[in-house]
């Protein structure tokens, strides 16, 4: 089984440019075309948040149009740049949220050999991650229901420090998330948000972040690092479930992409 994980699309309404630099709509369309053309088709595609620039309705419309061309199922969760109401208005068919934990967008996908669990770690108006009590209760009960089945858990924010200074904002109730995850050796935690690939072990669980479709953060590990990005080829992760384990591959979308930058998130060009 193959699960493709793409993240941080930053599609702007009207095909505008994210941070006045990156064409998220075009980069997503190139990524979708590549996934559709792979000789070994993914069984599904996961989008781990930050889909529309500033949660704009038009961004979700463009993203839905691109994702809707894929023959395989697509599953989405929100990121800090998304707005739940606009997100669901545009992408509800890709987000079968469990009403028991509303308004948080959490759900599971059970029809594959590999279980997929999605939890919403966002809070309206906040850039950082949050693990609110209703989500914590839902996640613990959900994982406890099948404690031995191999499982990928998807969320947007990584709860662990990355050494990219400005990206390492406090993650509220990260300790509670760690307490839950350390009970389940069958789980791998798959995040977005960082705009870089990173792998670690956190509370005994394999944990990673996906590279972005749009805007790659420069690996600057000083206290003010994490503010600069380059505009270049999209990338994604391919999770391969085989022989009872998950192998994760970093992949780049081939093609002609101009590598530009670095640019600043806090001071984008006019």
TrEMBL record:
One of its GO terms (molecular function) is metal ion binding. It comes from the Bacteria. Signal peptide: none annotated. The keyword Iron applies. Keywords: Hydrolase, Iron, Metal-binding. Pfam families: Metallophos. The keyword Metal-binding applies. Residues 3-197 form the Calcineurin-like phosphoesterase domain. InterPro entries: Calcineurin-like_PHP, CNP_phosphodiesterase-III, GpdQ/CpdA-like, GpdQ_beta-strand, GpdQ_catalytic, Metallo-depent_PP-like. Gene3D superfamilies: GpdQ, beta-strand dimerisation domain, GpdQ, catalytic alpha/beta sandwich domain. Belongs to the cyclic nucleotide phosphodiesterase class-III family. PANTHER family: CYCLIC NUCLEOTIDE PHOSPHODIESTERASE CBUA0032-RELATED, PHOSPHOHYDROLASE. This is Phosphodiesterase. It comes from Desulfovibrio desulfuricans.
